[in-house]
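Weekly modeling sync, notes
Attendees: S.R. (lead), two postdocs, one rotation student

Agenda item 3: backlog of single-chain predictions. S.R. asked that every request posted to the team notebook include the full sequence so nobody has to chase files. The rotation student volunteered to paste the first one in as an example of the format we agreed on. Action items at the bottom.

Example entry:
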Amino acid sequence: MSTMHSESHKAERIGWLRAAVLGANDGTISVASLVIGVAAAGVPQQSILLTGVAGLVAGAMSMAAGEYVSVQSQADTEEADIEREKRELATEPERELEELTSIYVSRGLDEPMARLVAVSLMSKDALAAHVRDELGITETLRARPIQAALASAISFVAGAIIPIAAVLLAPSANIVEVLSATALVTLVVLGGTAAYAGGASVAKGALRVAFWGVLAMGITAGVGKLFGTVV
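Predicted structure, as returned to the notebook:
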């Protein structure tokens, strides 16, 4: 008795994972850096908190809009290519058959077998065969702008909540120190988790994200300190 073999590939989740990790990293880094810069200038804790909340709302909307526009552009290009394939299949089916055959030959099949495969696939669903093998568009990797926008916004909020919570819970005299440590730990976890999910080195992923987070927070703290002193 045969059983169906099922495999799970990391590429299946790379689209939404990229948007989610980007959003969470940006949420933590952006809001933590913003809040640290304001805190370093010596403003009251209430103003620091208000700055963080404003940064969360503005950042989430910006991430959602940017991701939607970017992915929608990709989706528009895919749709245009698919429509072109539909027209070519309707007007030049023999040419499209030769084109698909040459693709399979380039992948290692001999000419007769490649043509047999092309004929068989086109007889069932010619458009699907060309979209997949000629255009390289699959359901797994196809552009989904709304999903990407929502993932970016939600993950940005999830990442931004952490520095805001740190501001709420930290003693007013140690906001910068507590927030910096909290943000750093969060970034290490996010970077390591993303690397693990994608099959990459966890240590490298964590260090990469932590480095850029520390750099951003350090620069904004310096700017805040400078302007706070000047004022």
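Discussion: group reviewed the output briefly. The radius of gyration is 25 Å.
Action items: rotation student to repeat for the remaining queue; S.R. to check formatting next week.
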